[in-house]
Amino acid sequence: MHFSIPETEVCSGENGSTYVAYNIHVNGVLHCRVRYSQLLGLHEQLKKEYGNNVVPAFPPKKLFTLTPAEVEQRREQLEKYMQAVRQDPMLGASETFNSFLRKAQQETQQIPTEEVHLDIYLSNRQKVKVNILTSDQTEDVLEAVASKLDLPDDLVGYFSLFLIREGKDGGCTFVRKMQEFELPFVSVTSLRNPEYRIVLRKSYWDSAYDNDVMDNRVGLNLLYAQTVSDIERGWILVNKEQHRQLKSLQEKGSKKEFIRLAQTLKYFGYIKFDPCITDFPEKGCHVIVSAGNNELNFHVKLPNDQIKEGSFKVTRMRCWRVTSSVPVVNGTANSGTSGKSDIKLELAFEYLMSKDRLQWVTVTSPQAIMMSICLQSMVDELMVKKSGGSIKKMLKKRHNGSLRRSDSQQAVKSPPLLDSPDSNREPVVKLSSKLTSVTLRGISTSNSANDISGNNIHGNYAFEGIGDDDL
Questions:
Q1: pTM over 0.70, yes/no
Q2: Most buried of 32, 147, 201, 332 (most Cβ within 10 A)?
């Protein structure tokens, strides 16, 4: 997730006093508004729990009222502090940090704690209405949905909640995976736009885990509904013969066989992003990026209108970074009343094109953070497998037992039969400069003249290396 503090506000306090508030944005959208003293309190609590050597430095107090220049300097320092805390594996995952952000989000949006109904959607657009508290975090809501669907506890960890935006044309834009530091009801309500909704979708990449999910009736129905949806929206490519076989399996009610056939098709299990811009293989190329199978797939339209395709394996990415920029007007960031800044996001990753040759590849997209989240989750999954572990788990239960469970379960409806495949899809050819499978061991510095410096680089622990002896 990309944390930024692009702007400050002068707010009115008690007794007519004023104070400077810092607007914390996540993925370019206002998450919460906090005072310096609140962030200082968070810092002190983190130091108490983890020690001075772990927690990054915090901007010092000032004895006198800050000048505009000092306010801007503090804004930059606080932004770097929040980014550093979030990127630390221990601090960023701590309950202290996440509960601070959840409480600040609720206070900023001025939504009191009360019981509400929240609509969660399945891939087939079926609505699941759950009874929650406005202060329930992502894990609570996910468990409430699982309970309503009668999904077993040991399968809950295979699914996640995603914030999406559904266009008037039926298109679907994945905004982000719902995070542990946010309150889903508050997040979707504060957007004040009915096009945003929360969807339940599988959260793993390796299709081998499908077998675990399909052993359960509810899990099978959820995975089947998602597979049908992905085929209908063109995320999974099918030809006429494959479509005929799939439709035949649908008519027989053979859901497992349907999924197993779909697993053999191109882009099964991928998330497809909206059209955007890349500098590969040359600047200004229009591209459709898809994430899946431990890679980012590029469907590129070159300046000469030629269509080409290629893939970047996550194991060949030495590191990646999300950067943002906000246009400044009259000394302040340009932010609309919705709390969403006119922010430009870029995902840049350093890729091993061939032995001893690293190159930065940049994608400019409003979904850059979602792409980064996909990369990180692929790496996490690879590392779990490499260590001999499994993603199969039961989510932690709340000690206070305050989560309300529904007495009545809701069945997952089967989607309608597939429509005919789109025969107008453009054929693609492989990129002429194929991406080699050779990687380096122990790369510590970049060989690229366009290297990106800063503190937001994600090192890739799944980066593969081979020595000359292995060639």
A1: yes
A2: 32
